[in-house]
Structures are given as C-alpha cells and as structure tokens.
Amino acid sequence: MRKVHFISVNEPLVLDLALALREKGYEVSASGCGLTDEEERLRAAGCVCYGDGWFPEKLNKDIHSVVLGAEVTRENPELVKAKELGLLIQSIPEFIYQRTLTKTRVVVAGTKGKKTIISMVISALRKQRLDFDYALTSQIDLLPNRSHLSYEARIALIEGDEHVTSRLDKRFQLEFYRPHIAVLTNLAWSETTDHASPEAYWNTYRSFVDSIEREGKLIYYGRDTQVSQLAEEVRSDITAIPFDTLQVVEREGQTILQTRFGEFPVRIPNRFFLVNLHAAQLVCRQLGVKDALFYQALSEYSLSLPL
User: Fold this and answer.
1) What Cα–Cα distance (Å) separates residue 292 from each residue in 220, 263, 281, 282, 285?
2) Which of 88, 115, 151, 247 has its Cβ near the most Cβ atoms within 10 Å?
3) DSSP 160
4) How do residues 167-224 score in pLDDT, each as one tens digit?
C-alpha cells in the first residue's frame, strides 16, 4: 500500500484530499501548524497525525510522495527532510492531475459561475447514476467535502483556479489539469488574480486552452469577447462549443423551460442562472447524459434552491 504525506493539512483542500486518499485505501500521514479539529478528523478516518506542528523525523524513504499545501515555505522542516530523502514532492494541482490521469477530466474555469455549473453537472450525473470524482476549491452544498477519489469513477470534476500554485511554485494551477472537457465562463482581470496585467491573465487562459487533451472539447461563453477570441484560436483537433442562455416563458406564476422534450418548471435565482444552465447541459451531453434527463434533473435542482 502506497504511503502519502500531506504538509499543511489545515488548508481545507489539503485536508479533504488527505481524507479522500485515505478512503481510497492509501496509508496517509499529515501535518500542520495551527491545527484545530483537523487532527481529530484525520485520526477518525485512519490517517496518521503526529500533532500540531512539524515532525521531519517522522519522514522516511517508505513514503511514496509528499504533497505540499499552497502555504508551505521553502524553510519548512518537513519539506527540507523530504528533499534530503529524495522523495517525490508534488503540489496540489500536480497531485490532482496524477490521481485523475485515467479519468475524463472536466475542468470548469473562468471568473464567475464555476460553482453553479459544477453543482448543476453534479445534479445531472447523480440523476443518471454516474459515479464521479471531484477536486474543488469551493465548498458545494451537494457534496460532503471538497474532494473525492475512487478507483471506479471514470469522470473527474475539477474547479479550475486561476491563482498561482503555491508560495514555491509560481505557475498557475490551470496549467496542470489538461482537461478533456474545458468550460470557460467569462474573464475579468483584477489585481486579486495574482496576475500583474490583463495580458498576463489572458495568457494564462490561453495556455489553459492550449492544454486541452487531443480531440477535447472547449465549452465557452460566447458573449465574452476575450473568451470568444480564445475559442477562435483553438487547435484544429479541439471542438469549440459556445453557450449562451436558455429561453423560458412565464405562465400562471411559473417560469417554464421549453424544450423539445417537454416543459420543465424552474426557479431562477439570478440573471446568470440560464447561462450556467446551458453550459452544464453541454458538459453533461459530452458525458453521455441525455438532454431529457438533464432537464428533469435541473428542474428538480432549481426548485430545491432557497427563495
């Protein structure tokens, strides 16, 4: 059984990945400075946690790989020890890619709408009873945590983060995932994105589009000028599919989504809902979910949303 050690497990995604890998059957150890309830959750799941702080003396050559949280510094004593031992050291996005190497990776990226689109896709996959793994930076109400890893699932949903990978690796997380199906919503540069300029920001997304696997799909928001430009520049083997908004009618106080498969009542919480709905529909179609089933699932999903 492979052993994996996580450094800085008090970061939410790192903790969830550690728990997910343990559930998959790996031997997992973890450490962090400033742990609160993380230590109890790790031990309850069968992971090894030596306590609050760093324990470089616990690392040895039996460990297959060491996974670094985004906040780990070069001086971290466990990282120093891992390097001395010649262990495989991975960032979070590198680790996610390696764990989903044999799966169909769906990466949802862009400034807005990622969480909603992923929630919609999850609802439809569950309706179809399709298993899926996931690695998300957001907490989604439909899921118990931010990550799940399995041997059985053939689909992996990944939330594409536009920030740098970590303090030690200034590449952007989007550069690692190599999606088979990429979703690109809109692009809105700001100084909080870790990019020095709008051009640097767009170049990151250009690299993301270029990283799509051969014969892959780019599902993109057609009303965003920058996104549409990226779609026009894709390689010839990539199929670019635009999404916009689905049409509804109002009848007797109800909002109705009209489709060739019938009419489906929906509740629309915001003006982007129908745009995100179209993006999720196109993703699910690529994953083998029939449109009629998708509409049914999303009708139920929307009606369950709080007023």
Assistant:
1) 22, 10, 10, 13, 10
2) 115
3) P
4) 999 999 999 999 999 999 999 998 778 898 999 999 999 999 999 999 999 999 999 9
- For 141, other C-beta atoms within 10 Å of its C-beta total 9
Relative to beta strand 133-135, strand 147-148 is antiparallel
d(CA 248, CA 241) in angstroms, rounded, equals 21
User: Can you tell me which residue has the tokens 């609802």?
Assistant: 123
* Beta strands across the sheet bearing 254-259: 248-251, 254-259, 262-266
Q: What is the pLDDT of residue 192?
A: 76
Handedness of CA 88, 94, 95, 99 (dihedral sign): negative
Residue 246 and residue 218: Cα distance in Å, rounded?
Answer: 19
Cα–chain-centroid distance for residue 64? 24
pTM of the model: 0.95
44/150 Cα distance (integer angstroms): 19
User: CB–CB of 118/147 below 8 Å?
Assistant: no
How far, in Å, CA of 256 to CA of 187, rounded? 30
- Return the ∠ at Cα 114 (arms to 69 and 180), rounded to 5°: 80
Give CA–CA dist 307/305, Å, rounded.
7
Q: Are 147 and 20 in contact (CB under 8 A)?
A: yes
